[in-house]
Design a protein that fits this description.
Bound molecules: fe (ii) ion
Order of helices and strands: EEEHEEEHEHEHEEEEHHEEEEEHEEEEH
Oligomer: single chain
CATH superfamily of the largest domain: Clavaminate synthase-like
Structural class: alpha+beta
Strand order of the largest sheet: 7-8-19-11-21-9
Largest sheet: 6 strands, mixed
Radius of gyration: 25 Å
Number of strands: 21
Strand content: 25-35%
Length: 366
């Protein structure tokens, strides 16, 4: 990648492709104290107020700097590296490659909590691991009631829901969700009926004195890649049909329509939703429904298969952070008479983790 000049025009060259950079694009990036606030990096001018017919009057290119004078009299020095950065489209988060994993995964990405953890380089490593594997386990987290709130808000901001700012996961009488019983929970994603679905779930183990109650995780990314390869027709229909997910209790009715496997605008993996107690398939053609039900059964078998599931016990002081768009989670049954099993949970969104990760990357010059 490089920048070139010709006849007062700026060109960007990448792998033999040469394109002119619009003068207005450069004009918008004019910096200097009169144009950009040093502290916030925010513009002090409104580019929509500028004349549309911006042209370059004078131009000079050195190894590191592009100097431009525009026809409205503005002069600026732009760093070549910064211009190239914008074209390389490097986003530190999207370009962390996902690692596909199944039941053979042995390294559970543990990180010990310590003082000033959230501003430490170790937190950066933990977040990178989170984006690679879809989860990370923090150990030795203080076992204080509600500490989950401090933890989540030290990375970003809690995403409050109708379950509250955080929720207690323990068996209780008259539960409004099966999570609050001692029943086993098959792999599922949380809250597919919300729009938007909470991105990340945190579970902090305060106490776990039962012999069962193991936590389970499945990589939805691995499973959907497997489905795509071995059962392309099933994969296709699960990426196409939107189903209705619903949650109903005494005070609220929540509903959203979405695909079980959602792809992004490039056809790449974006999100899985799976909660077979809450999904309602639309009334479509019988033949299509036939295929849909077979596809749903197959993906359910894969999600529930031993081949893809890891199982581990959360101990007091462990905090599990998992990607609710990528992973499915569940737990094995337990006997509430054996003792207490008490977790506290909450949600945060991707802007929190991405913002923190980029901040730490900048801070440690990584
Ligand atoms: Fe859940």
């Amino acid at each position: 990648m490089k920048i070139e000049l010709k006849d007062k025009k700026v060109f960007f060259e990448n792998q033999g492709l040469r394109k002119e950079i619009h003068p207005f694009w450069l004009r918008e990036r004019v910096n200097g104290d009169n144009f950009v606030d040093k502290k916030t990096q925010q513009r002090l001018f409104d580019p929509t107020d500028l004349e549309e017919n911006i042209k370059i009057d004078n131009i000079n290119l050195s190894k590191e700097i592009l100097e431009v004078t525009f026809n409205d009299g503005t002069y600026t020095k732009l760093t070549i590296q910064n211009i190239l950065k914008e074209f390389s489209n490097i986003n530190e988060v999207k370009y962390i490659d996902k690692v596909e994993w199944d039941s053979s995964l042995k390294d559970f990405n543990n990180f010990d909590f310590k003082d000033n953890f959230f501003e430490d380089q170790e937190m950066y490593k933990a977040l990178v691991n989170f984006y690679k594997y879809g989860f990370v386990i923090f150990k030795k987290v203080p076992i204080k009631n509600n500490f989950i709130v401090n933890f989540a808000n030290s990375i970003g901001s809690i995403r409050r829901t109708n379950f509250g700012e955080f929720f207690d996961v323990k068996s209780k009488p008259n539960p409004n969700d099966l999570a609050y019983t001692s029943l086993p929970l098959a792999p599922h994603t949380d809250n597919p009926y919300r729009n938007p679905v909470p991105c990340i779930q945190m579970l902090h183990c305060i106490e776990n004195k039962v012999s069962g109650g193991f936590s389970t995780l499945v990589d939805g990314y691995t499973v959907t890649q497997k489905l795509k390869k071995d059962f392309p027709k099933y994969y296709k229909i699960l990426t196409e049909i939107k189903v209705r997910f619903q949650f109903v209790d005494q005070s609220i009715v929540l509903e959203d329509w979405a695909e079980m496997i959602q792809l992004d605008e490039n056809g790449a993996f974006k999100q899985v939703r799976f909660s077979p107690r809450l999904d309602f398939v639309p009334l479509i053609d019988k033949e299509k429904l036939e295929l849909y039900y077979s596809a749903r059964k197959k993906i359910s078998q894969l999600y529930n298969s031993d081949k893809f599931r890891i199982e581990f016990k959360l101990s007091s002081g462990d905090l599990l952070m998992m990607d609710n768009y990528r992973l499915l989670h569940g737990r094995t049954t337990y006997d509430a008479n054996e003792g207490n099993r008490f977790l506290q949970g909450c949600y945060i969104d991707y802007d929190s983790t991405e913002g923190k990760l980029k901040h730490l990357k900048r801070k440690f010059n990584l």
